[in-house]
Amino acid sequence: MLCILLLTVAGGAFLYDRISNHTIENQYRLRALAIATTVAQMPDVAAALQTGDPSRSIQAVAASVQSQAHPDYVIVTDRNGVRFAHPDPDLIGTVVHEPLEVRDGQTHVGTEPGRLGPSANAKAPIRAGDGSVIGQVSVGILETTEDKDRGQQTWLIAGYSAVVLLIGALGSLLLARRIKRVTFDLEPAEIASLLQDREALLHGIREAMIGVDDGGRVTVINSEARRLLHLDGSILGERLEDLLPAGRLLSLLTGELAGTDQVVITEDALLVANRMAVSQGGRSIGAVVTLRDRTEVEGLVRDLRSVRGLMEALRAQEHEYANRLHVVGGLLEMGDVDQARRFVSGISDTSRSLGEGLRSRVEPPELAALLLAKITVAAEQDVHVTVTDDSQLRQPFLDTQSLLTIIGNLLDNAVDAVAGQAAPRLVMLQLDDSAGIFISVTDNGPGIPAEMLGDVAIDGFTTKEQRPGIRRGIGLALVARIVHRAGGTLDVFPGPGGRFEVWLPEPEPGHPLHEPASMGEGPA
Q: Which end of the chain has the least Cβ crowding within 10 Å, N or C?
Protein backbone atom coordinates (compact mmCIF):
# COMPACT_ATOMS: atom_id res chain seq x y z
CA MET A 1 0.00 0.00 0.00
CA LEU A 2 2.87 2.36 0.76
CA CYS A 3 4.40 1.68 -2.67
CA ILE A 4 1.10 2.32 -4.40
CA LEU A 5 0.56 5.46 -2.35
CA LEU A 6 4.10 6.70 -3.08
CA LEU A 7 3.76 6.13 -6.82
CA THR A 8 0.33 7.76 -6.86
CA VAL A 9 1.43 10.84 -4.90
CA ALA A 10 4.65 11.21 -6.93
CA GLY A 11 2.78 10.91 -10.22
CA GLY A 12 0.13 13.35 -9.06
CA ALA A 13 2.74 15.82 -7.84
CA PHE A 14 4.63 15.63 -11.15
CA LEU A 15 1.50 16.20 -13.22
CA TYR A 16 0.32 19.00 -10.95
CA ASP A 17 3.73 20.65 -11.15
CA ARG A 18 3.67 20.54 -14.96
CA ILE A 19 0.15 21.93 -15.05
CA SER A 20 1.06 24.58 -12.49
CA ASN A 21 4.14 25.68 -14.49
CA HIS A 22 2.08 25.91 -17.65
CA THR A 23 -0.52 27.95 -15.80
CA ILE A 24 2.12 30.34 -14.40
CA GLU A 25 3.59 30.80 -17.85
CA ASN A 26 0.18 31.65 -19.29
CA GLN A 27 -0.53 33.99 -16.41
CA TYR A 28 2.71 35.91 -17.04
CA ARG A 29 1.95 36.14 -20.74
CA LEU A 30 -1.54 37.48 -20.02
CA ARG A 31 -0.08 39.91 -17.50
CA ALA A 32 2.43 41.14 -20.07
CA LEU A 33 -0.38 41.46 -22.65
CA ALA A 34 -2.49 43.51 -20.27
CA ILE A 35 0.40 45.91 -19.64
CA ALA A 36 1.26 46.18 -23.34
CA THR A 37 -2.36 46.82 -24.29
CA THR A 38 -2.71 49.49 -21.60
CA VAL A 39 0.40 51.36 -22.71
CA ALA A 40 -0.55 51.09 -26.39
CA GLN A 41 -3.93 52.67 -25.71
CA MET A 42 -2.48 55.72 -23.88
CA PRO A 43 -3.18 58.86 -26.01
CA ASP A 44 0.07 60.51 -24.89
CA VAL A 45 2.11 57.62 -26.21
CA ALA A 46 0.40 57.68 -29.62
CA ALA A 47 0.70 61.50 -29.89
CA ALA A 48 4.37 61.53 -28.88
CA LEU A 49 5.13 58.72 -31.30
CA GLN A 50 3.54 60.68 -34.19
CA THR A 51 5.63 63.79 -33.41
CA GLY A 52 8.89 61.86 -33.01
CA ASP A 53 8.85 62.29 -29.20
CA PRO A 54 11.40 65.07 -28.97
CA SER A 55 10.94 65.29 -25.18
CA ARG A 56 11.36 61.57 -24.66
CA SER A 57 8.05 61.40 -22.81
CA ILE A 58 7.50 57.82 -24.02
CA GLN A 59 10.57 56.64 -22.10
CA ALA A 60 9.19 58.32 -18.97
CA VAL A 61 5.83 56.59 -19.39
CA ALA A 62 7.58 53.22 -19.92
CA ALA A 63 9.74 53.71 -16.84
CA SER A 64 6.69 54.65 -14.78
CA VAL A 65 4.78 51.56 -15.95
CA GLN A 66 7.80 49.33 -15.32
CA SER A 67 8.17 50.62 -11.77
CA GLN A 68 4.47 50.25 -10.97
CA ALA A 69 3.47 47.03 -12.85
CA HIS A 70 6.89 45.37 -12.40
CA PRO A 71 7.50 43.92 -15.84
CA ASP A 72 11.15 43.37 -16.63
CA TYR A 73 11.05 45.59 -19.70
CA VAL A 74 8.72 47.89 -21.68
CA ILE A 75 9.91 48.65 -25.22
CA VAL A 76 8.11 51.10 -27.52
CA THR A 77 8.99 51.25 -31.25
CA ASP A 78 7.48 53.02 -34.21
CA ARG A 79 6.31 51.41 -37.44
CA ASN A 80 9.88 51.42 -38.76
CA GLY A 81 11.30 49.65 -35.73
CA VAL A 82 12.96 52.69 -34.12
CA ARG A 83 13.06 52.33 -30.35
CA PHE A 84 11.46 55.18 -28.33
CA ALA A 85 11.56 53.42 -24.93
CA HIS A 86 13.92 50.73 -23.69
CA PRO A 87 15.32 49.60 -20.29
CA ASP A 88 18.75 50.42 -21.70
CA PRO A 89 18.67 54.21 -22.52
CA ASP A 90 21.62 53.81 -24.90
CA LEU A 91 19.44 51.77 -27.26
CA ILE A 92 16.80 54.49 -27.62
CA GLY A 93 16.79 55.71 -31.25
CA THR A 94 18.28 52.48 -32.58
CA VAL A 95 16.41 50.14 -34.89
CA VAL A 96 15.34 46.63 -33.92
CA HIS A 97 16.42 43.89 -36.27
CA GLU A 98 13.19 41.85 -36.05
CA PRO A 99 10.21 42.77 -38.24
CA LEU A 100 7.24 44.49 -36.66
CA GLU A 101 4.83 41.72 -35.68
CA VAL A 102 1.78 43.90 -35.04
CA ARG A 103 1.47 45.21 -38.61
CA ASP A 104 -1.62 42.97 -38.85
CA GLY A 105 -3.26 45.02 -36.13
CA GLN A 106 -3.42 42.05 -33.68
CA THR A 107 -1.77 41.44 -30.34
CA HIS A 108 0.83 38.69 -30.04
CA VAL A 109 2.07 36.66 -27.06
CA GLY A 110 4.85 34.12 -26.76
CA THR A 111 8.36 33.51 -25.54
CA GLU A 112 10.95 36.04 -26.67
CA PRO A 113 14.71 35.32 -26.53
CA GLY A 114 15.64 39.02 -26.34
CA ARG A 115 18.81 40.80 -25.24
CA LEU A 116 17.90 40.43 -21.53
CA GLY A 117 17.19 36.74 -21.81
CA PRO A 118 14.15 34.54 -22.50
CA SER A 119 10.90 36.08 -21.36
CA ALA A 120 7.14 35.82 -21.52
CA ASN A 121 6.46 38.52 -24.09
CA ALA A 122 3.38 40.32 -25.35
CA LYS A 123 3.16 42.87 -28.20
CA ALA A 124 0.28 45.32 -28.75
CA PRO A 125 -0.19 47.75 -31.68
CA ILE A 126 -0.22 51.53 -31.21
CA ARG A 127 -2.88 53.09 -33.40
CA ALA A 128 -3.27 56.63 -34.75
CA GLY A 129 -6.53 58.49 -34.64
CA ASP A 130 -7.59 56.96 -37.96
CA GLY A 131 -6.94 53.43 -36.63
CA SER A 132 -3.75 52.80 -38.56
CA VAL A 133 -0.85 51.02 -36.83
CA ILE A 134 1.95 53.48 -36.12
CA GLY A 135 4.03 51.46 -33.68
CA GLN A 136 4.07 48.67 -31.09
CA VAL A 137 4.54 48.15 -27.35
CA SER A 138 6.56 45.08 -26.34
CA VAL A 139 6.33 44.03 -22.67
CA GLY A 140 8.25 41.09 -21.24
CA ILE A 141 8.68 39.29 -17.94
CA LEU A 142 11.93 37.34 -17.74
CA GLU A 143 11.86 33.59 -17.14
CA THR A 144 14.07 34.15 -14.09
CA THR A 145 11.12 35.92 -12.50
CA GLU A 146 8.84 33.06 -13.55
CA ASP A 147 11.31 30.56 -12.16
CA LYS A 148 10.98 32.11 -8.70
CA ASP A 149 7.24 31.63 -8.72
CA ARG A 150 7.65 28.16 -10.19
CA GLY A 151 10.08 27.26 -7.46
CA GLN A 152 7.69 28.46 -4.77
CA GLN A 153 4.86 26.51 -6.41
CA THR A 154 7.04 23.40 -6.67
CA TRP A 155 7.96 23.57 -3.00
CA LEU A 156 4.30 24.03 -2.12
CA ILE A 157 3.36 20.97 -4.18
CA ALA A 158 6.20 18.98 -2.65
CA GLY A 159 5.14 19.96 0.87
CA TYR A 160 1.50 19.12 0.20
CA SER A 161 2.50 15.78 -1.33
CA ALA A 162 4.70 15.00 1.67
CA VAL A 163 1.81 15.71 4.04
CA VAL A 164 -0.52 13.53 1.97
CA LEU A 165 2.11 10.78 1.87
CA LEU A 166 2.59 10.99 5.63
CA ILE A 167 -1.15 10.84 6.32
CA GLY A 168 -1.48 7.97 3.86
CA ALA A 169 1.42 6.12 5.48
CA LEU A 170 -0.13 6.50 8.93
CA GLY A 171 -3.52 5.40 7.57
CA SER A 172 -1.91 2.42 5.87
CA LEU A 173 -0.18 1.46 9.09
CA LEU A 174 -3.39 1.69 11.10
CA LEU A 175 -5.33 -0.21 8.43
CA ALA A 176 -2.65 -2.89 8.27
CA ARG A 177 -2.77 -3.30 12.06
CA ARG A 178 -6.54 -3.58 11.98
CA ILE A 179 -6.45 -6.14 9.19
CA LYS A 180 -3.79 -8.08 11.08
CA ARG A 181 -5.91 -8.02 14.21
CA VAL A 182 -9.02 -9.14 12.33
CA THR A 183 -7.12 -11.91 10.54
CA PHE A 184 -5.20 -12.94 13.69
CA ASP A 185 -1.83 -11.91 12.21
CA LEU A 186 -2.23 -14.26 9.24
CA GLU A 187 -0.74 -13.45 5.87
CA PRO A 188 -2.90 -13.73 2.70
CA ALA A 189 -1.22 -16.98 1.68
CA GLU A 190 -1.93 -18.43 5.13
CA ILE A 191 -5.56 -17.30 4.93
CA ALA A 192 -5.95 -18.96 1.52
CA SER A 193 -4.39 -22.15 2.86
CA LEU A 194 -6.69 -22.13 5.88
CA LEU A 195 -9.69 -21.63 3.60
CA GLN A 196 -8.70 -24.63 1.51
CA ASP A 197 -8.12 -26.74 4.61
CA ARG A 198 -11.44 -25.62 6.08
CA GLU A 199 -13.39 -26.54 2.95
CA ALA A 200 -11.68 -29.93 2.79
CA LEU A 201 -12.35 -30.54 6.48
CA LEU A 202 -15.95 -29.35 6.38
CA HIS A 203 -17.03 -31.51 3.51
CA GLY A 204 -14.72 -34.42 4.23
CA ILE A 205 -16.30 -35.48 7.53
CA ARG A 206 -19.53 -37.39 8.01
CA GLU A 207 -20.61 -35.41 11.05
CA ALA A 208 -22.75 -32.34 10.57
CA MET A 209 -21.08 -29.11 11.64
CA ILE A 210 -22.42 -25.58 12.02
CA GLY A 211 -20.40 -22.53 13.02
CA VAL A 212 -22.15 -19.49 14.48
CA ASP A 213 -20.87 -16.13 15.66
CA ASP A 214 -21.67 -14.42 18.94
CA GLY A 215 -24.83 -12.97 17.38
CA GLY A 216 -26.20 -16.40 16.48
CA ARG A 217 -25.59 -15.98 12.74
CA VAL A 218 -24.42 -18.91 10.67
CA THR A 219 -20.82 -18.43 9.54
CA VAL A 220 -20.06 -21.91 8.22
CA ILE A 221 -22.03 -25.07 7.51
CA ASN A 222 -21.21 -28.32 5.75
CA SER A 223 -23.33 -30.41 3.42
CA GLU A 224 -24.19 -33.02 6.08
CA ALA A 225 -25.68 -30.32 8.33
CA ARG A 226 -27.74 -29.03 5.42
CA ARG A 227 -29.04 -32.53 4.81
CA LEU A 228 -29.96 -33.29 8.40
CA LEU A 229 -31.57 -29.90 9.02
CA HIS A 230 -33.17 -29.63 5.56
CA LEU A 231 -31.56 -26.28 4.81
CA ASP A 232 -31.23 -25.15 1.20
CA GLY A 233 -29.96 -22.05 -0.55
CA SER A 234 -27.63 -19.41 0.83
CA ILE A 235 -27.93 -19.34 4.62
CA LEU A 236 -24.60 -17.84 5.64
CA GLY A 237 -25.18 -14.75 7.73
CA GLU A 238 -28.73 -15.79 8.62
CA ARG A 239 -29.82 -16.15 12.24
CA LEU A 240 -30.61 -19.64 13.54
CA GLU A 241 -33.99 -18.40 14.77
CA ASP A 242 -34.90 -17.54 11.17
CA LEU A 243 -33.86 -20.96 9.83
CA LEU A 244 -35.21 -23.45 12.38
CA PRO A 245 -38.52 -23.72 14.23
CA ALA A 246 -38.63 -23.19 17.97
CA GLY A 247 -37.90 -26.32 19.97
CA ARG A 248 -35.22 -28.40 21.60
CA LEU A 249 -33.01 -28.48 18.50
CA LEU A 250 -32.92 -24.68 18.23
CA SER A 251 -32.25 -24.36 21.97
CA LEU A 252 -29.28 -26.70 21.68
CA LEU A 253 -27.86 -24.89 18.67
CA THR A 254 -28.16 -21.44 20.28
CA GLY A 255 -26.71 -22.63 23.59
CA GLU A 256 -29.84 -22.14 25.67
CA LEU A 257 -29.58 -25.83 26.61
CA ALA A 258 -26.12 -26.83 27.78
CA GLY A 259 -24.53 -30.24 28.09
CA THR A 260 -22.66 -32.79 26.05
CA ASP A 261 -24.11 -35.51 23.83
CA GLN A 262 -27.59 -34.07 24.00
CA VAL A 263 -30.19 -36.18 22.17
CA VAL A 264 -32.65 -34.46 19.87
CA ILE A 265 -35.22 -35.99 17.57
CA THR A 266 -36.23 -34.41 14.26
CA GLU A 267 -38.89 -35.53 11.83
CA ASP A 268 -36.67 -38.17 10.27
CA ALA A 269 -33.54 -38.54 12.40
CA LEU A 270 -32.23 -39.00 15.89
CA LEU A 271 -29.30 -36.66 16.46
CA VAL A 272 -26.67 -36.26 19.16
CA ALA A 273 -25.66 -32.61 19.52
CA ASN A 274 -22.59 -31.01 21.07
CA ARG A 275 -21.91 -27.29 21.28
CA MET A 276 -18.46 -25.90 21.98
CA ALA A 277 -17.67 -22.21 22.48
CA VAL A 278 -14.72 -20.93 20.43
CA SER A 279 -12.33 -18.14 21.37
CA GLN A 280 -9.25 -16.74 19.67
CA GLY A 281 -6.68 -14.59 21.36
CA GLY A 282 -8.87 -14.36 24.45
CA ARG A 283 -11.84 -13.11 22.40
CA SER A 284 -15.05 -15.05 21.94
CA ILE A 285 -15.77 -15.54 18.25
CA GLY A 286 -18.82 -17.81 18.47
CA ALA A 287 -19.42 -21.54 18.77
CA VAL A 288 -19.21 -24.76 16.80
CA VAL A 289 -22.08 -27.26 16.92
CA THR A 290 -21.64 -30.85 15.78
CA LEU A 291 -24.54 -33.16 15.03
CA ARG A 292 -24.13 -36.91 14.77
CA ASP A 293 -26.79 -38.92 13.02
CA ARG A 294 -27.51 -41.78 15.42
CA THR A 295 -30.64 -42.96 13.65
CA GLU A 296 -29.30 -46.29 12.43
CA VAL A 297 -27.13 -46.91 15.47
CA GLU A 298 -29.92 -46.11 17.89
CA GLY A 299 -32.25 -48.34 15.90
CA LEU A 300 -29.77 -51.20 16.19
CA VAL A 301 -29.34 -50.55 19.91
CA ARG A 302 -33.08 -50.59 20.47
CA ASP A 303 -33.41 -53.76 18.38
CA LEU A 304 -30.66 -55.29 20.48
CA ARG A 305 -32.53 -54.36 23.63
CA SER A 306 -35.65 -55.95 22.17
CA VAL A 307 -33.71 -59.14 21.47
CA ARG A 308 -32.24 -58.98 24.96
CA GLY A 309 -35.75 -58.60 26.33
CA LEU A 310 -36.86 -61.67 24.42
CA MET A 311 -33.83 -63.54 25.73
CA GLU A 312 -34.76 -62.49 29.27
CA ALA A 313 -38.28 -63.74 28.58
CA LEU A 314 -36.94 -67.05 27.35
CA ARG A 315 -34.61 -67.27 30.33
CA ALA A 316 -37.49 -66.59 32.68
CA GLN A 317 -39.59 -69.19 30.96
CA GLU A 318 -36.69 -71.65 31.05
CA HIS A 319 -36.30 -71.06 34.78
CA GLU A 320 -40.02 -71.43 35.36
CA TYR A 321 -40.27 -74.60 33.26
CA ALA A 322 -37.22 -76.09 35.00
CA ASN A 323 -39.03 -75.72 38.33
CA ARG A 324 -42.13 -77.28 36.86
CA LEU A 325 -40.13 -80.17 35.44
CA HIS A 326 -38.70 -80.77 38.90
CA VAL A 327 -42.24 -80.99 40.23
CA VAL A 328 -43.21 -83.41 37.47
CA GLY A 329 -40.08 -85.48 38.08
CA GLY A 330 -40.80 -85.65 41.80
CA LEU A 331 -44.41 -86.76 41.24
CA LEU A 332 -43.30 -89.45 38.83
CA GLU A 333 -40.64 -90.66 41.23
CA MET A 334 -43.29 -90.97 43.94
CA GLY A 335 -45.43 -92.94 41.50
CA ASP A 336 -48.25 -90.39 41.44
CA VAL A 337 -48.69 -90.50 37.68
CA ASP A 338 -52.25 -89.13 37.67
CA GLN A 339 -51.25 -86.06 39.65
CA ALA A 340 -48.29 -85.48 37.35
CA ARG A 341 -50.63 -85.74 34.32
CA ARG A 342 -53.04 -83.21 35.83
CA PHE A 343 -50.19 -80.84 36.74
CA VAL A 344 -48.74 -80.91 33.20
CA SER A 345 -52.19 -80.47 31.67
CA GLY A 346 -52.89 -77.43 33.86
CA ILE A 347 -49.60 -75.76 32.94
CA SER A 348 -50.21 -76.41 29.27
CA ASP A 349 -53.71 -75.03 29.41
CA THR A 350 -52.57 -71.86 31.25
CA SER A 351 -49.73 -71.09 28.83
CA ARG A 352 -51.83 -71.96 25.80
CA SER A 353 -54.75 -69.90 26.98
CA LEU A 354 -52.60 -66.80 27.52
CA GLY A 355 -50.88 -67.06 24.13
CA GLU A 356 -54.02 -68.03 22.26
CA GLY A 357 -56.00 -65.30 23.99
CA LEU A 358 -53.55 -62.64 22.88
CA ARG A 359 -53.25 -64.11 19.41
CA SER A 360 -56.99 -64.20 18.89
CA ARG A 361 -57.50 -60.57 19.89
CA VAL A 362 -54.30 -58.85 18.75
CA GLU A 363 -52.90 -58.38 15.27
CA PRO A 364 -50.25 -58.56 13.93
CA PRO A 365 -48.57 -61.67 15.40
CA GLU A 366 -45.42 -59.70 16.20
CA LEU A 367 -47.40 -57.51 18.59
CA ALA A 368 -48.93 -60.52 20.33
CA ALA A 369 -45.45 -62.00 20.70
CA LEU A 370 -44.17 -58.70 22.11
CA LEU A 371 -46.96 -58.54 24.68
CA LEU A 372 -46.35 -62.16 25.75
CA ALA A 373 -42.64 -61.42 26.16
CA LYS A 374 -43.29 -58.21 28.13
CA ILE A 375 -45.69 -60.05 30.44
CA THR A 376 -43.14 -62.80 31.10
CA VAL A 377 -40.20 -60.42 31.66
CA ALA A 378 -42.28 -58.22 33.96
CA ALA A 379 -43.32 -61.27 35.98
CA GLU A 380 -39.63 -61.86 36.74
CA GLN A 381 -39.62 -58.44 38.45
CA ASP A 382 -42.81 -59.32 40.29
CA VAL A 383 -44.80 -56.91 38.09
CA HIS A 384 -48.20 -58.11 36.98
CA VAL A 385 -48.95 -56.95 33.42
CA THR A 386 -52.46 -57.59 32.18
CA VAL A 387 -54.27 -56.96 28.92
CA THR A 388 -57.90 -56.06 29.55
CA ASP A 389 -60.47 -58.61 28.47
CA ASP A 390 -62.18 -56.19 26.11
CA SER A 391 -58.95 -55.29 24.30
CA GLN A 392 -58.76 -56.04 20.60
CA LEU A 393 -56.62 -54.87 17.72
CA ARG A 394 -57.37 -57.03 14.73
CA GLN A 395 -56.62 -54.99 11.60
CA PRO A 396 -54.32 -52.10 12.52
CA PHE A 397 -53.63 -49.61 9.74
CA LEU A 398 -50.41 -48.46 11.40
CA ASP A 399 -47.23 -50.21 10.28
CA THR A 400 -46.06 -52.94 12.63
CA GLN A 401 -42.77 -51.29 13.61
CA SER A 402 -44.45 -48.07 14.71
CA LEU A 403 -47.06 -50.02 16.66
CA LEU A 404 -44.34 -52.02 18.43
CA THR A 405 -42.53 -48.79 19.26
CA ILE A 406 -45.57 -47.14 20.83
CA ILE A 407 -46.80 -50.11 22.91
CA GLY A 408 -43.32 -51.40 23.78
CA ASN A 409 -42.10 -48.04 25.10
CA LEU A 410 -45.28 -47.34 27.06
CA LEU A 411 -45.15 -50.79 28.71
CA ASP A 412 -41.43 -50.49 29.46
CA ASN A 413 -41.94 -47.12 31.13
CA ALA A 414 -44.84 -48.45 33.20
CA VAL A 415 -42.90 -51.55 34.32
CA ASP A 416 -39.85 -49.45 35.23
CA ALA A 417 -42.08 -47.04 37.18
CA VAL A 418 -43.55 -49.77 39.46
CA ALA A 419 -40.57 -52.15 39.64
CA GLY A 420 -38.93 -50.36 42.53
CA GLN A 421 -42.00 -49.98 44.77
CA ALA A 422 -43.73 -52.30 47.21
CA ALA A 423 -46.22 -54.89 45.96
CA PRO A 424 -48.66 -55.00 44.35
CA ARG A 425 -47.02 -53.86 41.14
CA LEU A 426 -49.69 -53.57 38.47
CA VAL A 427 -49.63 -52.52 34.83
CA MET A 428 -52.70 -52.65 32.61
CA LEU A 429 -52.91 -52.36 28.82
CA GLN A 430 -56.08 -51.60 26.91
CA LEU A 431 -56.39 -51.76 23.11
CA ASP A 432 -59.34 -50.71 20.98
CA ASP A 433 -59.69 -50.44 17.20
CA SER A 434 -63.36 -49.53 16.97
CA ALA A 435 -62.61 -45.89 15.99
CA GLY A 436 -59.01 -45.65 14.89
CA ILE A 437 -56.47 -47.10 17.32
CA PHE A 438 -56.79 -46.45 21.03
CA ILE A 439 -53.96 -47.50 23.38
CA SER A 440 -54.08 -47.00 27.13
CA VAL A 441 -51.36 -47.99 29.61
CA THR A 442 -51.90 -47.45 33.32
CA ASP A 443 -49.90 -48.44 36.38
CA ASN A 444 -50.03 -47.95 40.12
CA GLY A 445 -46.65 -46.23 40.30
CA PRO A 446 -45.91 -42.65 41.39
CA GLY A 447 -46.98 -41.20 38.01
CA ILE A 448 -45.88 -37.95 36.39
CA PRO A 449 -45.94 -34.76 38.51
CA ALA A 450 -48.45 -32.24 37.19
CA GLU A 451 -45.79 -29.56 36.65
CA MET A 452 -43.82 -31.90 34.34
CA LEU A 453 -46.66 -32.96 32.02
CA GLY A 454 -45.62 -30.47 29.34
CA ASP A 455 -42.06 -31.81 29.22
CA VAL A 456 -42.85 -35.52 28.94
CA ALA A 457 -42.61 -35.70 25.14
CA ILE A 458 -39.41 -33.61 24.89
CA ASP A 459 -36.39 -35.60 23.77
CA GLY A 460 -34.06 -36.25 26.66
CA PHE A 461 -36.73 -35.83 29.36
CA THR A 462 -36.76 -38.64 31.93
CA THR A 463 -37.62 -39.21 35.56
CA LYS A 464 -35.42 -42.31 35.72
CA GLU A 465 -31.93 -42.45 37.16
CA GLN A 466 -29.28 -42.07 34.52
CA ARG A 467 -27.11 -45.12 33.91
CA PRO A 468 -23.81 -45.20 31.98
CA GLY A 469 -24.17 -46.38 28.40
CA ILE A 470 -27.96 -45.99 28.31
CA ARG A 471 -29.62 -42.98 26.71
CA ARG A 472 -32.72 -41.96 28.59
CA GLY A 473 -35.61 -39.83 27.40
CA ILE A 474 -35.90 -41.23 23.88
CA GLY A 475 -38.81 -43.67 24.12
CA LEU A 476 -41.62 -41.22 24.81
CA ALA A 477 -40.14 -38.74 22.33
CA LEU A 478 -40.31 -41.43 19.63
CA VAL A 479 -43.88 -42.24 20.64
CA ALA A 480 -44.84 -38.57 20.46
CA ARG A 481 -43.18 -38.24 17.07
CA ILE A 482 -45.07 -41.22 15.60
CA VAL A 483 -48.35 -39.99 17.08
CA HIS A 484 -47.79 -36.46 15.74
CA ARG A 485 -46.94 -37.78 12.30
CA ALA A 486 -50.13 -39.85 12.33
CA GLY A 487 -52.24 -36.85 13.30
CA GLY A 488 -53.18 -38.44 16.62
CA THR A 489 -52.98 -37.41 20.24
CA LEU A 490 -50.84 -38.43 23.21
CA ASP A 491 -52.45 -37.66 26.57
CA VAL A 492 -50.51 -37.92 29.81
CA PHE A 493 -52.35 -37.73 33.13
CA PRO A 494 -50.81 -36.59 36.40
CA GLY A 495 -50.07 -38.99 39.24
CA PRO A 496 -50.40 -40.73 41.51
CA GLY A 497 -50.49 -43.62 39.12
CA GLY A 498 -49.23 -43.43 35.58
CA ARG A 499 -51.69 -43.15 32.73
CA PHE A 500 -50.84 -42.71 29.07
CA GLU A 501 -53.42 -42.69 26.30
CA VAL A 502 -52.74 -42.69 22.58
CA TRP A 503 -55.36 -42.23 19.88
CA LEU A 504 -54.52 -42.56 16.20
CA PRO A 505 -57.13 -41.73 13.54
CA GLU A 506 -57.40 -43.91 10.47
CA PRO A 507 -55.62 -42.11 7.64
CA GLU A 508 -56.74 -41.58 4.10
CA PRO A 509 -55.35 -43.94 1.41
CA GLY A 510 -51.86 -42.90 0.33
CA HIS A 511 -51.05 -41.36 3.74
CA PRO A 512 -47.40 -41.86 4.81
CA LEU A 513 -48.59 -44.06 7.70
CA HIS A 514 -49.17 -46.85 5.20
CA GLU A 515 -45.40 -46.91 4.69
CA PRO A 516 -42.86 -48.43 7.14
CA ALA A 517 -41.54 -46.14 9.85
CA SER A 518 -38.05 -44.69 9.63
CA MET A 519 -35.30 -44.13 12.18
CA GLY A 520 -35.15 -47.81 13.10
CA GLU A 521 -37.94 -47.32 15.58
CA GLY A 522 -38.53 -50.23 17.89
CA PRO A 523 -39.53 -50.96 21.44
CA ALA A 524 -37.00 -50.11 24.08
A: N
